[in-house]
# Entry
Amino acid sequence: MQRVHLVRLTALWQKETLALLRDRHGLIALFLMPAIFIVVMTMALHDAFMPGAAIDVAYAVVDLDDSPASRALVARLDKAGSFRRIATERDAELARQQVRAGRQALALVVPAGFGERLLAPGGIDGKPTAPLQLLVDPVLNPALQLAFRTQVSAVLGTLRADELSQRAGQLFGLPTAGQPVERAWPDDIVSVAVQNERNVRPPSSVQQNVPAWLVFAMFFVVIPIASIFIVERQQGTLQRLRALGLPFGLVLLGKLLPFFVVNQLQAVLMVLIGRYVVPLFGGEALHIPDGGALALAWLLCAAVSLAAIGWALLVATLTRTPQQATVVGGVGNILMGAIGGVMVPKFMMPAAMQQLAALSPMAWGLDGLHTVVLRHGGIAEIAGQLGLLFAFAGGTLLLAVLVSRKSA
Amino acid sequence: MSAAATGIDLQAVGYRYAGAGRPALDNVSLNIAPGQVYGLLGPNGAGKSTLLSLLCGLSTATTGTLSVDGRPLAGLRRAEPRAVALVPQDYAFYPTLTVRENLAFFAGILGFAGAAARARIDAGIAFAQLDDAVDRRAEQLSGGLRRRLNLAIGLLGEPRWLLLDEPTVGVDPQSRHFLLDAIAGLPAQGTSVLYTSHYMEEVQTLCRRLAILDHGRLIAEGELESLCGDAAGAQVELATDVALPAALVERWAMLSPAPREYLLKLPSTAALPGLLGEIAGVAQLRRIACGRPDLEQLFMRLTRRSLRD
# Structure
């Protein structure tokens, strides 16, 4: 590169850095906002990412039978542990009132004769079998209602199977174990995340949230880049630079490096927050990958950064005022984040939304980071995301140049 | 084309914006000698800014040729990119940067580094008397100080030609006086100036020669003295109680800038009694002024409109 271009680039970088350091709103959007999001969202979604974590929903059991079988049912529900039992009542009406009062969201009424008719389906011997009854607070999430019903059905099934094998054993004089309720069963299902090298547990809240909000924050370079660029255009500074013979490519390069550095600083800061600040609030510390994975994660950050800067320059050329740029850039980012799995993790979305997520550059970055950090993927596994991000960066930069030429 | 001509030389220059019905510049030929402050006048939309943007390389002429100091403009800009500098009408610098930071930035864009950059920045500060404002952000400066910074940035590269586009808009009288003095002194320091302004009195003070553009065409060019005192005739301005008959207006080659107001030029004051005699037969005179026109009157006569429209 010619020496004069190096002098010019240095001047452009210094100017851009000074302008950014004096842009308080831009700095807040770039550094403070994602830091707060990471801490708050990590804590808010803490349990959603914990496999087998207790669901904070209380239920009561109204045991009208008080038989070994009903007690076994209660004991096994306790053991499942997902829902929190707060009482065993004897009065169904009292339980109903407590549901209405909000003390508990669910009440399971075990009818009298439950143990006796455990193996007698209704009508098989000419006598009716009273069903188990579930009193439900209607505001309780339907998925949780269903989960509780499923859990009760499962426990009921094992109870019937045990009872059946017990009676059959007695009938045929086979050796049997003690009472069903006393038996220990390997009935926990352990969630295992499938990874490349070794099996470790699934992503925690901090592992989801740090990459997500980092990618989101990187795209917020749109605010300072667009504000500086639009002021340059409005005040005639871009024209003056052209009159001084400064090529437009150099103007763009002058913006690329400072904001690339800003993006890398964001990455370091967000990782440090995940590692050292989140634990202060009771969350789990972020695990930082080492060696090759770290290099791949950085490569992804670099690709996300270029995509974000390209997007920012395109927004800057397409909008007329800093206010317009803030709205278009800000809303665009929020949309990309919303469909890209930043605000609501992709795996929580319905299938159709997950397909839509594939359109968001933020999702490409986030998927890539998860592949590297959580699934220990190599360069081949993230090549697709890297390609998309680089193509997006190149495409938006090219469009920005074309739009600028046309309006010059 | 007079390739050997010194100064700024335009030969049959034309420029048309994409999609525009008529050209912004139409067959303009003009030679501006170095060593002076040359005035460029014209109403809004006359083609002044287009001419400046051609001269500083922001646009390329559709037809005709431009040369500066005997070299085709494009070649000169490649060989000596600092030879022609523009000071735009906008405050084309960074509001959140200080005066010194702005000067340092533009010095860098001009390719100055190290001691050379520092020397140019100090010279700019001294020239525009910005010593007390060097560490203030540009957004905190008064209109006058901003204009001075704008001018100082334009002079950083020690250009041979400085193109000034309305350099005194929005400044206080003291700053205007300072700017005009500073600009008047530039030719002596080796910088020739092409000066556009809406303020006629400024052009009259600063420029010995000037050109007037209207609708993209050059409608007058020459020494201020000879343009205003053309043919030693007398300029007559008059107002009547009723409109004058068209035949009378035509015979005396009158212009009518407003209803029942007329402008005309007489070969000498001896023709005045004849004119008054003819008018007396058809209308009453409300007002009459007779004498040598000033620049504003000349401008109005030539462009048939006010400068500030």
About this structure: Confidence is low (pLDDT under 50) at residues 196-201 of chain A.
